[in-house]
Amino acid sequence: MQKITEGDLVEKFPLIFQDRYASVRDSCMAFGIECGPGWYPILDVLFEKITQYCEGVLFPSPKAVQIKEKFGNLRVYMDVTTPYIDGLIWMAESITDSTCEVCGGPARLMGFEAGCLEVRCPDHSRIKAGAAGSRNAVGSVTKTIKDRPPYERRVPAYTKDGESITLLDVLNVALISYCESRKGADVKVKEVRIEDGSMLFDAEGVDEETQGIMDMAAAFWRRTSA
Ligand SMILES: [Zn+2]
Fold first, then answer.
1. Residue 137 confidence (pLDDT)
2. Is residue 187 part of a domain?
3. In a domain, 98, yes or no
4. Which residues constitute the domain of residue 75?
5. Would 48 be classed as within a structural domain?
6. How much distance in Å is there from the Cα of 110 to the middle of ligand 1?
7. For residues 171 and 210, is the Cβ–Cβ distance under 8 A?
8. pLDDT 10s digits, 73-100
9. How crowded is the C-beta side of 43, counted as CA atoms within 13 Å?
10. CA 93 to ligand 1 center in whole angstroms
11. How far is CA 1 from CA 40, 77, 105, 199, in A?
12. 123 C-alpha vs ligand 1 centroid, how far in Å?
């Protein structure tokens, strides 16, 4: 995948980054993007989707208020959102559950010191060599894919053609946590198809926010599989 810098993102999304050079007293964006470059491609896809959506529905572009790593994950705060934009952000943050913050490679959420969490690959982990080998030494892992019982699946593990795509597991966890946190939400993806390089979903119970979650998944898959 193409290497993306913070400068690239600021230049490409001037409205979203309009406070990048504001005073530190006025905006946390004065500190820049406060996460590692491994997550920049996720931010790039997220801001592309937000920009496209705002142009499409004539919604004024929101601006970023803060972008940072917190409790191991990406956090993106915008000044104004809609449920659809919230969905896009939800999925972007969920993708960072399994993406190394430094290099963008496969990783998982782990505790590395008392109370500190990180999502990093073995090469970039701050967990001390001895501690990494001991299951008891690491903190609680909150949202790993394997810890979920299979009956909870809201997204099939395979596409219609039988292809296994890791991102479907990430989407599954994102929709499970969404439905757990939103009363009455009950989205279920019945089928995933790949057509002409696009990921398409046949789903029921979809609201605006879960549409954003699924669209971000499809857009990120398209980027990483290109
Ligand atoms: Zn890494």
1. 41
2. no
3. yes
4. 6-105+208-225
5. yes
6. 13
7. no
8. 999 999 999 999 999 999 999 999 999 9
9. 33
10. 17
11. 11, 26, 11, 19
12. 6
